[in-house]
Amino acid sequence: MNNKGIVSVIIPCYNGNQFLDRCLESILKQSYKQIELIIVNDGSTDKSDEIIKSKMPEMKRQLLDCKYINQENLGVGGGSKYCTKICHRRVFDIIGC
To answer: Minimal CA–CA distance to 35: which of 96, 91, 97, 86?
Structure first.
């Protein structure tokens, strides 16, 4: 895969179901589609996992790459730190949810 022009968007999420759907829809509505999306559900106890799984087929169709990690709660920064380790791009943005 040619990495030129690819942007990584990292979403660490903990109990963010009230914001998650709108956040993911915003990413899908971007005209720029050279996006690697990495979502880390950091042990949410709300409906975050359900929302993410329902959006995965559409995100995989529309975006260049989409990864979902569902992990135990690692506390503030745990999800972000893990994402930056698996992110392969030089340009990335972290969107908290």
So the answer is: 91
